[in-house]
Amino acid sequence: MKEEYSFTVNGKQCTTSMNKPLLRxxxxxxxxxxxxxxxxxxxxxxxxxxxxGRAVRSCILSTKRAAGKNIITTEGLSEREKEAFVYxxxxxxxVQCGFCTPGMVMAGKALIDANPSPTVEEIKKAxxxxxxxxTGYKKIIEGIALAAAILRGEEKIERALEEGExxxxxxxAIRIDVREKVLGYGEYVxxxxxxxxxxxxxxxxAYPRARVLDIDFSAALSLPGVLAVLTAExxxxxxxxxxxxxxxxxxxxxxxxxxxxxxxxxxxxxNEEILSEAKKLIKVDYEVLEVVRNIREAMAENAPRVHExxxxxxxxHVARGDAKKALAESKYVVTQSYSTPFTEHAFLEPECALAFxxxxxxxxxxxxxxVYDTRKEISIMLGWEPERIVVENKLVGGxxxxxxxxxxxxxxxxxxxxxxxxxxxxxxxxESIDFHPKRHAMEGTFTLGCDENGIFTGLDCExxxxxxxxxxxxxxxxxxxxxxxxxxxxxxxxxxRGFGCYTNNPPAGAFRGFGVCQSEFALESTINLLAEKAGLxxxxxxxxxxxxxxxxxxxxxxxxxxxALKETLEAVREVYEKNAGRAGIACAMKNxxxxxxxxxxxxxxxxxRGGAVExxxxxxxxxxxxxxxxxxxxxxxxxxxxxxxxxxxSNSEVAPDSGTTSGSRxxxxxxxxxxxxxxxxxxxxxxxxxxxxxxxxxxxFAEYFxxxxxxxxxxxxxxxxxxxxxxxxxxxxxxxxxxxxxxAAHDSGKVVNPIAIQGQIEGGVLMGxxxxxxxxxxxxxxxxxxxxxxxxxxxxxxxxxxxxIYVEKKELxxxxxxxxxxxxxxxxxxxxxxxxxxxxRDGIIRTKLPMEKTFYSKDR
Length: 860
Known about the structure:
Elements: E1 5-9, E2 12-16, H1 22-29, E3 48-51, E4 54-57, E5 70-72, H2 79-92, H3 101-114, H4 120-126, H5 138-152, H6 159-162, H7 178-183, E6 198-204, E7 210-216, H8 218-222, E8 226-230, E9 239-240, E10 247-248, E11 263-269, H9 272-280, E12 283-288, H10 295-299, E13 312-320, H11 323-328, E14 332-340, E15 352-358, E16 361-366, H12 371-382, E17 389-393, H13 409-419, E18 423-426, H14 429-435, E19 441-450, E20 456-468, H15 474-484, E21 494-502, H16 516-534, H17 538-545, H18 565-578, E22 583-592, E23 602-609, E24 612-616, H19 626-638, E25 645-647, H20 666-687, E26 699-704, E27 723-733, E28 739-747, H21 754-773, E29 779-780, E30 783-784, E31 801-806, H22 830-842
Parallel strand pairs: 1-5, 6-18, 16-17, 20-21, 24-25, 28-31
Antiparallel strand pairs: 1-2, 3-4, 3-5, 6-11, 7-12, 8-11, 9-10, 13-21, 14-19, 15-16, 15-18, 19-20, 22-27, 23-24, 23-26, 27-28, 29-30
Helix pairs in contact: 2-5, 12-13, 15-16, 16-17, 16-22, 19-20, 21-22
């Protein structure tokens, strides 16, 4: 007789004879979807529940060990607790992508139950087992503190704020998705179940570079419950790729693997248990080949070719003026080489897709950064017209650039079409780490000169990127690294050469900052050395060279009226100078919009149905909050209340293509399309005497496109991008060399939502600090060595005090109410500012990330 395990879940007695992770029982058997699976390794905290009054990660507690215990999930909160946490997290800006949120709520509840008046330090300690990659933790800490105060009766829920009575541009607005994310009922792809749904998973290569001699899946195919095993022979076109189609869907028999993330075959089964067993039965014979480990090996003569055309994936040359002559005539010159590592995005939601036959084609529920991009890649693989494929975002649990390429979507679609039933593909955390593109590792040498007054004269640099096994977005990322390596300054002699190399490492692609984190770390560190030679402070040399409205950037673009780099420098001058000897400073600029001559268009459709305005724009909200921004813009243009405006999300079947969520573009580019459509709606509404019912059934469409000039344009003053954001960060160390404070001053144009922008800045700062100090992506002969818990991600009890400062000029762009975006630039200046702080403290030049000989490093 089987042993049975009984316990109480949310007040109900439950019994099972299955001994399995409690996480799986809660999700799969009880349907409690608030309990998220972020890693199944006990490292991320997304599955946090309360067991006998303590916060526990349910993935490491078995049903057997849970016997006799009292368990509470977010679904089991009292109504009073639910309302307190929904309001507190909304008003504090504690929610972005939302995947970590229910776990944070439960950790917060366990603390408040034991200690109704927790201090900030006590809250930090209580959530140190929960990772958030979006917010920087500060807003979550504030949210838990506010929830505690509400539950004590010391604070009240502001109904006007909660209900969005003032929801226009510039107003404090609670995100439209807060309630479903806080309470955990909002649907991410893995939360969706369909009748007859199957599961699929790829068997991936055992070696980063090996010839596949044979694939024997006969034993797996004969296993009861296995419906299909697909190989490269089953793929109509065995290539995908965001821009370059160089990525094999599966490695064919006789083919050569390029990284350990490569798929050998795809198994489709009735459930995940059978799926796991079937994969173990597949036998693959390999001829192991020598790997290409790094840039140096890739560029060596007689190096193994990762791709048929060689190991050079992409190159760029950006030049203006005469850098060689300018440097030769400079009073002071500094040359320095730098090295930055691969970085893992570590978004909390692993990749997942659910595909099913639909209207003579296929529909895919997905977690990605552009439904039309995903549609395009799937159409290339299938050889179909794109219109036969429908892609719809569910909630997206973070991206940061790591979900721009297809991952699970295309193989889910392939499997669904093969078996004629819904198929879900869900990556394990290990599979995610092995497969998806990282931030490029960089090797670069920078030479910067200035005159006797510290005015920059010229820059020469050579940048090498390791793009891993596949191109992903190597070309655009390399280009952005090159074009931004000049910094937000005013000089005209530059020569930048960039090269992206194939290796057998996991692919590299888009990552928050899009190549600029690497090149700006190098440039800003070089500026500090040049300032020392010129006898100027790091603040002063930057201020003397800072771009201003009407002046010309090194790429030839004339800075527009909204440019406020000097204002960000002025905002941090006092605190920087007050902390001389333990403070570092760095500036940055980052484009908003794709630019460089590409057709970057924002599109939006507004439809009046049922007495409400529906927003249709296929702009993926990956946590940054564009879905709420669009509602605010419609409210601003029409005067309608929040309750009368609905955002229908990103769905290629019903919403126009609004481009990729990348390049800090959605608020500006798609936001302007929303504003244009809303302005037309507003005029019609006024003509109808303010009665929305009079407009029932009408639709309002707008497309925004502002042309830009391509790289290498012959124009004397080419326009590379629609707009730039600017920032200055100051990092301050304490007596032990720990980062104690960060001041982050940002020019992002008009602040659409003050609640949201603070969390975006704080999250970017913490990501930048991790890049500088603690995060590492270890490889051994091209094989990743990290688990989620060993990536070096900063936790809540390690964060400094982050001061988010936003600078708003009176002169703004006449686009999207003057907003310019904040998502990427917030992560860029922090690493060089931290390097500058350590240089100011001990005089040691740190040219490699993560930095050595710091409070955080093993060699301290």
